[in-house]
């Protein structure tokens, strides 16, 4: 089953558009994990187990592992998720972007080494920096389009032919890069009207939407702006609000994560 | 000594604008290394030793290590270069691009874990995706501007206010992002007239220029278009032409690498 089909099935099975982001920050870990040598693996495993029936995808952020030299724990987390929850798409958030021969190495990293169903990629270097990922025909490439960080507009809102750059990216991906139906887009939740514009451009293409939860995006506006006619089409990501739902030091971080994931999923579902 | 000063000193000491790129591809390694468990480290170590008096910088491409789970060997290569050739800037080619908190993790990866003097970064997410790197005040961020791959024009040549996007990036980095003099730009060698336009925009800012050697850029046009008034200002990268200078299987790959590096350095110096 390819990435898009697997995602569609997870939307239905778990009645969820929630993507659980895995950004493991040791400084915020519960006290009982602090002395464990594989604390990152254990923390993420508990989060995955606690939310697997509530999520449409899991999204580990590789930077948190790379900073600590913890790629081995990321390998184990990915293997665990694939083994125990093979029906939940696994997205490697790496935002890779490089030319052909090098992009192929990054594709091997994401798909062969970590076994991800999809990887986030950067469009700045153009189609041949994204095309190598398509050789893995059952996997996906999720292209950065519009990001909701303060500097997101520096480039993305430059106007070309009367339209901001991010709309050109959406159009390019929809019309040219998505030849085999393997693409999705990253569009932040902060600007719902822009989310709606991207949805109008790309039809049914899935959107990965960060910015709800700790980043403060409005759930109702996000869902109404980004959903497809069928009430799906989105992976709405929440990371820190779920991972660090309890005061630090309390033992029930996984139960708290489940509670927040459930609330977030249900809040999203109110507006589908 | 900070990155820019270190680079300036290396230009002078080695009379060289040549950046030696380290893209270790096991399939192209000499036969005698094939059975070594740390073949990647040994190969790169020999290349570094053979070219350290001819290069103004070394640039490992992290994708080649990440695909193989060989981050440990990359750590050893970086440590070796720092220890034995501390005056040669070490550039981690990672083209990272993510928002603030995540960018800080990538900065920790590049600067604390690998000890790089500079890291390549992607501008698509704007200034706050680059700013965290500046907290390491003696290190540098080398921002993608104009790339010479076939798809490079997909975004970079979109016209805004009558100018292509890559010129806006050059202007933004020169006027705003380079507050503390820590920035450089990536500009491909394939289009010398564009290299000249970027040079005119950014003054003395260093340019990392891939595309000479295996990628076929013209040395004379590249140097004349990209040099500063002082005849420097560039790191002209060559990777495969140096690394794989001999027919596969021959034993003298390091001597051949040295020969090609010397020829390339001298060819560049003809036009400074």
What does this protein look like?
- The structure is a homodimer of 272-residue chains.
- Chain A is an alpha/beta fold and 272 residues long.
- Chain A has one domain: TIM Barrel (Alpha-Beta Barrel), CATH 3.20.20.
- In chain A, 42% of the residues lie in helices and 16% in strands.
- The first copy, chain A, starts with a helix and ends with a helix.
Task: Label this structure with key terms.
two-stranded antiparallel ribbon, alpha/beta, 272 residues, homodimer, TIM Barrel, eight-stranded parallel sheet
CATH class of chain A: Alpha Beta
Tell me the CATH architecture of chain A: Alpha-Beta Barrel
Strand content of chain A: 15-25%
Q: Could you estimate the helical fraction of the residues of chain A in percent?
A: 40-55%
Sheet with the most strands: spatial strand order of chain A = 2-1-10-9-8-5-4-3
Number of domains of chain A: 1
Please identify the oligomeric state. Answer: homodimer
* CATH fold category name of chain A: TIM Barrel
From N to C, what is the helix and strand string of chain A? HEHEHHEHEEHEEHEHEHEHH
Task: Give the CA-based shape of chain A.
Answer: globular
Distance between the termini of chain A: 25 Å
* Secondary-structure class of chain A: alpha/beta
Low-confidence segments of chain A: none
**Beta strand count of chain A:** 10
Output mean pLDDT of chain A: 95
Major beta sheet summary of chain A: 8 strands, parallel
How is the secondary structure organized here?
Two copies of one chain form a homodimer.
Chain A: H1 3-13, E1 18-22, H2 39-51, E2 57-60, H3 62-66, H4 71-84, E3 91-96, H5 100-113, E4 118-121, E5 140-146, H6 153-156, E6 159-160, E7 163-164, H7 165-177, E8 183-187, H8 192-202, E9 207-209, H9 219-226, E10 234-238, H10 240-243, H11 253-269
Parallel strand pairs in A: 1-2, 1-10, 3-4, 4-5, 5-8, 8-9, 9-10
Antiparallel strand pairs in A: 6-7
Helix pairs in contact in A: 2-4, 2-11, 7-8, 8-9
């Amino acid at each position: 089953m390819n990435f898009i089909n697997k995602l569609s099935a997870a939307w239905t099975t778990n009645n969820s558009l929630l993507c659980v982001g895995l950004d493991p920050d040791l400084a915020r870990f519960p006290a009982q994990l602090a002395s464990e040598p594989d604390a990152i693996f254990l923390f993420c495993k508990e989060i995955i187990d606690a939310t697997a029936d509530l999520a449409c995808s899991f999204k580990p952020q590789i930077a948190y592992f790379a900073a600590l030299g913890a790629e081995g724990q990321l390998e184990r987390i990915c293997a665990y998720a694939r083994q125990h929850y093979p029906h939940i798409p696994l997205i490697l958030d790496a935002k890779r972007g490089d030319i052909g021969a090098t992009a192929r190495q990054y594709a091997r990293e994401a798909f062969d080494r970590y076994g991800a169903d999809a990887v986030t990629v950067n469009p700045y270097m153009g189609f041949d920096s994204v095309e190598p990922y398509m050789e893995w025909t059952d996997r996906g490439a999720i292209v950065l389009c519009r990001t909701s960080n303060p500097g997101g507009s520096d480039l993305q809102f430059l106007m070309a032919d009367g339209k901001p750059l991010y709309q050109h990216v959406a159009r390019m991906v929809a019309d040219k890069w998505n030849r085999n139906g393997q693409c999705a887009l990253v569009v932040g939740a902060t600007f719902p009207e822009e989310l709606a514009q991207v949805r109008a451009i790309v039809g049914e293409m899935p959107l990965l939407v960060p910015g709800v939860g700790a980043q403060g995006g409005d759930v109702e506006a996000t869902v109404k702006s980004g959903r497809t006619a069928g009430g799906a089409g989105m992976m709405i990501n929440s990371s820190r609000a779920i991972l660090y739902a309890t005061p630090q030091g309390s033992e029930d971080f996984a139960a708290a994560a489940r509670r927040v994931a459930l609330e977030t999923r249900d809040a999203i579902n109110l507006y589908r």
